[in-house]
Amino acid sequence: MNTLTQENLLDIFEYKDGELYFKKRLGSRTKMNEPSGNIYNTGYKRVHLLGKKYYIHRLIWLYHNGYMPEFIDHIDGNKLKSVL
Q1: Are 38 and 54 in contact (CB under 8 A)?
Q2: What are 29-70's pLDDT values in tens digits?
Q3: Distances in whole angstroms, Cα of residue 23 to Cα of each of 8, 70, 75, 78, 79
Q4: Concatenated DSSP letters for 20-61?
């Protein structure tokens, strides 16, 4: 899988309460029944997925809108809040 798609995300994650939860185990470090990702020094939450690092807010956008945005404006300044 070279390009992450909305279809991939729908297969891998469940979205609820502003968070992405793994629906299936992708490796030994996959945490089930917990919001995915970790907060990094940038203040954003990221997840390591299929060999790449992704910001959770971008994945949530792709999950719901079908494309990966170049930029997301967190108008309220809250980097951890879902963009929906």
Answers
A1: no
A2: 888 888 999 998 888 899 988 889 999 989 999 999 999 888
A3: 12, 26, 30, 26, 24
A4: EEESS--STTPPBTSB--EE-TTS-EEEEETTEEEEHHHHHH
Indicate whether 76 belongs to any domain: no
Phi first, then psi, for residue 44 (nearest 5°) are -95, 155
CA distance 57 to 55: 6
Q: Which of helix, strand or coil describes residue 18? A: coil
Is the pLDDT at 11 greater than 70? The verdict is yes
Q: List, in sequence order, every residue forming a beta bridge with 46; answer none if it has no partner.
A: 38, 55
What is the C-alpha to C-alpha distance for residues 22 and 70, in angstroms, rounded to an integer? Answer: 24
**Structural domain harbouring 51:** 6-65
Q: Is residue 84 part of a domain?
A: no
